[in-house]
Each structure stands twice: as structure tokens, then as C-alpha cells.
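Reproducibility note. Readers wishing to regenerate the assembly model reported in the main text can use the exact inputs given here. Chain order matters: entities are listed in the order in which they were concatenated for prediction.
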Amino acid sequence: MESSSPSRSRSIAPVVAMAAAVALTLAGCSSSSGGKKSDESADGASAGKASTPRMKVALVTHQSPGDTFWDIVRKGAEAAAAKDNVELVYSADPNAGTQANLIQNAIDQKVDGIAVTLAKPDALKDVIAKAKTAKIPVVGLNSGVSEWKNLGLMEFFGQDETVAGEALGNRLNTEGAKKAVCVIQEQGNIGLTQRCDGVKKTFKGTTEVLNVNGTDMPSVKSTITAKLSQDKAIDYVVTLGAPFALTSVQSVADAGSKAKIATFDLNKDLTGAISKGTIQFAVDQQPYLQGYLAIDSLWLYKNNGNYMGGGEQPVLTGPAFVDKSNVDAVAAYAAKGTR
Amino acid sequence: MSGTQHAEPAVGTPPASGPEQADGRTARRPLALRLLARPEVGVFLGAVAVYVFFLVAAPPVREGAAMANILYQSSTIGIMALPVALLMIGGEFDLSSGVAVITSALTASMLSYQLTMNVWVGVVVALAVSLGIGFLNGWMVVRTGLPSFLITLGTFLILQGVNLAVTKLVTTNVATDDISDMDGFGQARKVFASSFHIGDVQVKITIVYWLVFAALATWVLLRTRYGNWIFAVGGNKESARAVGVPVTFTKISLFMLVGLGAWFVGMHQLFTFNTVQSGEGVGQELIYISAAVIGGCLLTGGAGSAIGPVFGAFMFGMVQQGIVYANWNPDWFKAFLGVMLLGAVLINLWVSRAATRR
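Running the prediction on these inputs yields the following C-alpha cells for the assembly.
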């Protein structure tokens, strides 16, 4: 896998050769179950291709590297771009200052439209004003549902995190939960905090917040275990990302707790856990839809002058609940990495 | 608990002679002071202080299950902190160790899955890759003479990017596919990620590995020629070379040892969680290095022990989980961690100063 860095290819050659030799020697050791052979390859959604003139659109997000959620957003954007004959320029940085520079970069490239996430709206204010001066339409997605109009964005696609949290809190009420712990994997992220605040608002039981180190799974696991054994009254674990929900399954077992698990956001392993019943339900904000609509809306605006949401209201993509009753319909798409 | 040596005597005495220093100055001081002068005694006292503190502040810590959980958290740090400490005694350090763990797990997972092979194939190839990364780090440091900070900062960034880009390229997602239904997974999980019961307390196997590896590292440092070489190259590379210590071999092998640790922890993560997210691991290198430094390894090399980092890692696990067991406001989580660790380092420093002053 190091072959992508040319400077190292010579020195790594013996290692690669050795690895190949080992692989060949063990070629008989193929697995009879699982693996790629058992999963059929699947293509993304395809709806033909528009014959409109080629346009260029930039999608600039605050994604941190290697997050399954953002990968789905990007896939949605790519699908729309392929359909609309759009050249998609994707860039991302969790640092707001760098994200602003990336938007400036898009303006300098004279793109036909920009889609941005507003995780830290204040830092992007000036550069978005510059885009308006340059007469480039800007739409928002994912985060910034309360800020997009103030910043003069044309449209917004996403989920109101507080509303999603409130919906989850209500659901906990109907499930009869008494005490929930809301697990934040990235301390200081406003969207995550809003989710937990939303839960706290509507959930009639007690909600406690637990911060974990999201880049170190074993520590996530032990910290949730510790919390569950510290407070035996907790009967619901609420995580804010699919991988953390899957990890908390083990924590619940380790702590000998009877707590059930609910989460925000989906991935393919999570749909499996929902159908098995190890995880109760997930709030899906449909990230694929966010990416798709953001790009598609810019195409519609350029070619037909449309505004989604009428330029007044955000277009909400969530909260959509996925539980045992509807998981089968979603699972096939999640397996492709698009839900 | 004897585990520290200093570089100069190790060079002066012939290799493989005993670790005890026939140095007149130390012989005249009382035993208690001599003990206190050892860095691992400082960190031991720090660890005891932190332990007692949470024993009082957080009642759940008094239960066996909680201790098993704390030790598990400590072991995943501690297993990596050991080779990182040895490397530091040898005068170098490695910023790529955190993401290297994930590189190893990703390699094993993707290789077995994509080629639909027994997971052991992936495990073996991942070992080769991890050792290869270690070799490359060491080889570049030795060949260029540049500080290991720069070299491994480079590999840190390369691995971070490669982890992400290759995973995306191969799986079209940024996390690997679930391999838990593949041949060999059950066996590999038994080796790397099983647990057993002591009474009704579930104990993770990594705790056993951690302590065994620590004992092994202590033996290597104190009783083998290779151990002497580590102190020698960390203390003074040139004089070490002059007395016939194979500096190049020692340094490269130490980096490869870090690779071995990364492989082991990577396999543990893979077989515990079935899948790996490619963005994980960033920042962990600092925790490994901190555990080694708290454990009495000098950033400048030439001094330290293998038992010190065990207590260093324990303190990390204890503080991190203790805060949760004590049910303190989670907003302060990182701040608590920092204060407790600084406190422990200061106790450590104060103890060794007080002991060596007279």
C-alpha cells in the first residue's frame, strides 16, 4: 500500500516483494466465508446524464479525514455531479480558517457554484460575501441550519441538529427509558453538542453527557464501560456516530449492563446490528441526500433559476428513523456506502 | 523493581556484564535514597498517589471489574509505550507510531477481505509492512543523521494520508469491511483480543501481554548485550561506536520494535472491533511518548527503564477512566487529565531531585 508515495517505493520494494511472496505462498489460504467474494459489487445511483453545458461546482466541507459520514456526503455529491454534467471540486478541512481559504480558492477558480458546510459560520462570513460579490451562487449543507440565511446563502440542505436530538429524546420517552448517556466523540463540536442538548430538552428522564476520545477506539470502549459501571441506572446509550454505537455494544457487554443503544447516523455494519437487535434504532440525516441536493440545486439554479425551499426555508434531510421495522429497505444502500 | 541504567557506565564496562554500577558515589548513600533516585520509583509513587486519590474520590474504582477496565485501557497504551520507551532510551523517538497502528490494522483487514483469504494471511503481511515502516524510519534516521523528529513527522503525515487514500481507493469507503465472518478470524481473535475470568471479573488478554512484554523488555535492557547497546547509543553515539557497539543495527532494530508493537496493537484493534476507520490513531503517538516520559525515560536518551512506562501507562488509564468513575463534569475531562499528569511528573521530578541532592 506504500506504492502511492514514490520516494519510498525503492526502499519498500523488498517489503512489498516479501509481502507478495508470503501472499503467494499462502494463496491456498483463501477464506471460505465472508470477504469480498461474498459481497457483490454495487454501483451508485445513476439517473442518466444531462446534456446541459459542463459547469464547475466546488464542495467545501469541514470534514476531518477518515470519517465514514463525510464519505457518504461526498458520494451523493459525486452522483449528482455525474448526472448533471458537473465537474465537482471537493476540498475539506476541519480548521475553519483553512476552510475559508479553500472557499477563496474556489472563488479564484471562477466556479459556477459553491456548496459549503457552516460548522463555524463566523469564520466563513467574509469569504462568503466575497463569493456573492463575484456573483457565484452559494448553498449550505449539513451544519449551519440557523445561520445560512444570515450569511446570505441561497438554499440549505440538512438536518436541524437540535430538532434531531429532540426527536431522539421523544423516541426515548416512548421506549420507556429512564436515564440516558449521550456520548460525544469530539469535544467542542457544536453540532454534536446541539444533538445532546436536543435529547436533554425532550427526554423526560435524565441525560448525562460523556466525552470520549474518538480517534482511539479502545479508549472509547473503556470509557463507556467505565460510565456504565459507575452508574448502573443508565438504561440507554446514545452515540453520535455509527462506529461509536458499534463499539458501545461491547462496552455494554463488558460492563454487564442492560442498557440499550441508539445512535445518530448510519453505516453498513450498523444496519446489520439493527436487524440483529443489538442496536435499537438510528437517526439518519441522509448525508447522501445532503451532498446530492446541494450539487443538484446549483445545477437547477443555473439551468432553470429554481430555489429549493423557496429561498426561505431550509430543506430538511432528517431526522429519519431507521429501526428494525424498516432496516431491511435501507440495508442494501448502506452496504454500498450510500446510506 | 531495579530497571535503570545510565549510558556512560554501560559504555565503559564490557557488554553483558551485570547492570550494577560499581560507582563509589552511589554505594555510600542509604538504600532508600538510592531507590528514590531511580526514575521508576518516582513514577511508581505517582501512580500510587493517583490510584489512592481515585480510590477515595470514585467508589466504583474499588471493584474488580473497574480495575480490569482501567488496566485494559492502560494495556493498549502500555504495549506501545514499551517499544517507544526503548527507542527513547536509544536516543530517538517516533511520531508515526499512532497512525502506524492503524496502518497495520488496515493492511491486515483490507488484504484478507479484498483477496478473500484467511485472515492470518493479512496478519502476516501486516507484520511485514509494520516492520518495514520501522526499518524505513530507522534507516532514514541513521543514513541522513537528521533528527528523528523530522523523519518520523514525515512518515506520520505519509501514513496518515496513505491510510485514508488507500482505504478509500480499495474499499471505496473510508472504513474497512467487516471481516468477522472470515476464516481464521475466531483464532486470531483468541490470540489478540480474547478475555478470561478471574472470579467473576472479566480480564482482557492484552493486560497479560502487556506485563509479559514489560518483563521481557526489562530483561533485555538489563541482562543482555543488546540492552547495553540501547543505553550506549542513546547516551553517546560516537563513543558507543568507538567501543564497538553496532549503532546502525541498534537504532534500526529499535524502530522496527516500535513497528512490532504497532502491529500487535493494530491486530488487537482489528480483532476487537472487526472494522477499522482510516482516520483513527492520530494523536496517540503523543500519549505513548508521554507514558514513556512520565515513566522516567529522558527525551534526550541514554536513561530510562521498561518498568517505568508500565506505571506511566497505568497512570493514563487510571486518570482517564477514574474521571468517569468519579462522575465529574465531562467538560473538564482533558483539563483534569492534564493537571493530574503534570502533577505526577512534578512528583516524579521532586522525588528524584530530593533523592539525588544529598
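We highlight two features of this model. Residues 7-21 of chain B have pLDDT under 50 and may be disordered. The first helix of chain B runs from residue 7 to 12.
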